[in-house]
Amino acid sequence: MRRDLKRLRERMVKEQIEARGIKDPLVLQAMRKVPRHFFVDEALENQAYSDHPLPIGHGQTISQPYIVALMSELLCPSPGLNVLEIGTGSGYQAAILAEMGLDVYTVERIRSLYLKAMKLYRELRYFSIKLKLDDGTLGWPENAPFDRIIVTAGAPQIPEPLIEQLADPGIMVIPVGEGKRDQTLIRIKKENGEIQKEDFGGVRFVDLVGRFGW
Q1: pLDDT above 70 covers what percent of the chain?
Q2: Which of 10, 90, 114, 203 has the most CB atoms lying inside 10 A of its own CB?
Q3: 3-state DSSP: the chain helix, strand, coil percent, rounded to 5?
Q4: Which tens digits make up the pLDDT trace of 46-65?
Q5: Mean of all residue pLDDT scores within the chain
Q6: In whole angstroms, how far apart are CA 61 and each of 40, 119, 191?
Q7: Side-chain half-sphere exposure of 197, counting CA atoms within 13 A
Q8: What is the mean pLDDT of residues 6-15?
């Protein structure tokens, strides 16, 4: 199985990501390189490169590969930018961002997931990723502003602290919806104090829990 993982990863990128229109070379390269199977339970390793999300415990999931790639591309990534991720989860999305050369700060509220991600980052030598155990809806104010913010859980509305901590100019990608697990993927661009929103269609994420979430 393990010797086939690189081939499965390549097929994932070709059939699930490139075929759906993802073109950013940084995103495609990172998706080809990061070993997604390390971010799922061993019992689910054979499904790691499949076209769907997978459970990681505590009611949380690792997102479908295409969604990870899409949200990464919507950030308009560039090496050297600093990015805040809300919802570390399995740790996979932050690893993709780090692989693209971004300076990653990630916040997780569930202690066991936070500790597991920290251990995995050490093993995979992603030493540049900074982690925090906290309510992600509050952001990470002591390290703000952030050039990019990505939220990997569905919010009832855009948390005000995250808007405040977004740099100007800056980009945020977040799923938002009034119904739980039924959201619209929104890209927010802040420029000259103005906020613009773009709609990228319906998505289903776990709930963003916290003071400014559910």
Answers
A1: 99
A2: 90
A3: 40, 30, 30
A4: 899 999 999 999 999 999 99
A5: 96
A6: 9, 18, 33
A7: 11
A8: 95
Q: In whole angstroms, give the CA distance from residue 62 to residue 142.
A: 28
78 assigned to active site? no
CA distances from 146 to 36, 81, 92 (A): 26, 8, 20
- In the block, which residue shows the tokens 């994420």? 205
The two tokens of residue 53 are: 């999300």
* Arithmetic mean of pLDDT, 94-117: 98
Q: Which residues contact 29 (CB under 8 A, 6 or more apart)?
A: 99, 100
Of 50, 63, 78, 112, the active-site residue reads 63
Q: Cα(77)–Cα(8) distance, rounded to whole angstroms?
A: 25
Q: Can you tell me the distance from the alpha carbon of 179 to that of 156, in angstroms, rounded to the nearest whole number?
A: 7
Provide the residue type at 83 as one letter. V
Report CA 207 to chain centroid distance, whole Å: 14
Confidence tier at 32 by pLDDT (50, 70, 90): very high
pLDDT of residue 203: 95
Q: Would you say 169 and 190 are in contact if contact means Cβ atoms under 8 Å apart?
A: yes
Which residue bears the tokens 């950030």? 75
Q: Is the peptide bond prior to 77 cis by the omega test (within 30 degrees of 0)?
A: no
Residue 134, classified by CB atoms within 10 Å of its CB into exposed (0-12), middle (13-18) or buried (19+), is middle
R_g of the chain computed on alpha carbons: 16
Point out which residues pair with 140 in neighbouring strands. Answer: none
Full-model pTM: 0.95
